[in-house]
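Quick note —
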Amino acid sequence: MSFFGSMLTLLTTLMHLYVFGRAYTLPMFRRPSYRRALIITGAALWLIFFLGRAYGGDRYGFLMVALEMAGMHWMAGVFLIAIGMLIGDLACGFGFLFRKAAGRIRTGGLMFGLALILLAHVQGLRPPVIETHEVSVKDLPARLDGTTIAMMADMHVGELMVGPRWLNARVAQVQALRPDMIVLAGDLFERSSDPAEMTPVMRQMSAPLGVWAVRGNHDTVRPNRRDATGEILAGAGIRILSNEWVNPADGLTLAGIDDLTSSRRRAGEGEANLDRALADRPANPTILLSHTPWLTDRAAAAGVALMLSGHTHNGQIWPFKYLVRARYPFITGRYEMDGMTLIVTRGTGTWGPRMRLWAPGEITLITLRSDTPGR
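Predicted structure written out below.
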């Protein structure tokens, strides 16, 4: 298990101990039989989570995929219950205030956490919303004024309940916008995705200025692992930009960089890839696709006009975004810096649990505006 996986397991275990330890003291569980049932339930749920983390995945077949997804859903669930119970603890001063009502207050916190779980499932199953932005681009030719770009990222197709049917609906949603260009900003397909199923769906995606993609950390090519994303996009005629640039239209350059969360594990590689992606490009306004919203200062200094990113999911489940923001300060929405606009999408799909809480999935539609006088 990776360091990230080990820390995730440790934190989830601590949340289990907190939630079931607090629940054990609630008035509703005073009967010995209820307390035994509570202990058995807590142990079973923790075991499902642990086995899903340790042995889940497509390499072990559908049952283990289902076990992994059950564990991920419970991980999100125990997180939300812990938030609800912590609010209850804070409201009663951890039992030192309102002692007679402390049990009821903590029970209310438990109910609030359960309500959050239900709401997160409802929001996670909803179609992504359309977020729109108008971006003024310096030196954009007047003939390109009004050019529209549709962006999707973090689809994570191949996760349980995110399959061909879901993807077909997203492609239809994008095509209905009739964009001039479509960009896919990484974390597109999980390794469990079947190219035979997904490629025909992706072939339906088209735009006058092309469909372009970059890899995310889930799309990164690794030794002895299938490159499902590469197979699907190649079969659909969609080009992956790997530390390179193209001119989709006269007077407009589009550059793409390999995922920075993977390349920056090796000192200097992410910076070198960015320099390579932007090297020797023509003196056109440049749009940069980067799955992770890092190296923004370096991109702005290199003259990038618009940077498009994803990866953060805006935390996906509130209030997890406050933890994500510690590592990714540009977490969602639009930012202006040194003449460059950065737009970070919340992502189109979900990773892990099919849950979102106050961070709805999105498809982003950007309209380019020329700053040429009298456009």
